[in-house]
Specification:
By secondary structure, the chain is α/β, with parallel strands linked by helices. The chain is built from nine helices and eight strands. The strands form two sheets. It has a five-stranded parallel β-sheet with strand order 2-3-1-4-8, sandwiched between helices. A three-stranded antiparallel β-sheet has the order 6-5-7. The longest helix is centred in the C-terminal third of the chain and has 15 residues, at 160-174. The structure holds BIS(adenosine)-5'-pentaphosphate. BIS(adenosine)-5'-pentaphosphate (AP5) binds at residues 7, 9-15, 31-32, 35, 52-53, 56-59, 64, 85-86, 88, 92, 118, 121-122, 131-133, 136-137, 157, 166, 194-196, 199.
Length: 216
Amino acid sequence: MRIVLLGPPGGGKGTQAALLSEALGIPHIATGDLLRQAVAAGTPLGREAEAYMDAGDLVPDDLIVAMMRERLREADCRKGFILDGFPRTRQQADAMEAFVRMDAAILLEIPEEVLLQRFAGRRVCSECEAVYHVTGNPPEVEGVCDACGGTLIAREDDREDVVRNRLRVYQEQTAPLVQRYRDASLLREVDARHGIAETHRRLLEVVSGLGSMRKP
Ligand code: AP5
């Protein structure tokens, strides 16, 4: 099954994509994670992407499309995948449609005031990128990753000024894709204001309705 998760920054795409990946046995592919790994490794892509990411702007389409074209060719994608953070512009969606057909786009719907609380409390592992929230999804030991023992930090682009820009960029460049998927009869919607487990349950219900799902 090939699924695009849509929704605003901070809306829980990464959290839900990770759970769904486990339930369906298909990879979770997040452009934000791939880019942060490239930045950390100091690759040419990472060096080019870093300034855009720090400002909360989108990395140029040609770089993203080339990165994703390569990633989606890997063997683990043969049975399907969950895309998180891609496509994010009309140009990216056009390019993607030229090399892959999607089964569904699922929109995580969430009001802005909830988003702002999620940004403020988000912590990520500096080693393995696992995502936590100080109240919504706290680690067992404060400041320490449950998965690998790494130190938890706030993301650079979760600063208030950068968050505002990311939300603006989302409205201008990514939100119009919702209508595109609705017009193509591929759109499903999930109310993502609930806790992580309840949102996951609702998401699984929607995915089950798409058929051919491996039982969680
Ligand atoms: P990216 O990493 O994709 O960021 P984003 O889309 O802005 O999404 P986030 O990672 O901020 O949020 P999320 O929806 O995954 O929420 P999460 O699960 O973490 O992109 C970063 C940058 O990379 C972009 O600004 C851009 O520069 C560049 N980029 C990436 N893709 C690109 C592309 N295709 N084209 C161009 N540029 C690109 O949850 C948020 C918080 O809430 C966490 O703390 C979590 O624990 C908590 N939480 C989640 N769900 C719940 C819940 N149900 N209840 C309580 N807490 C919850």
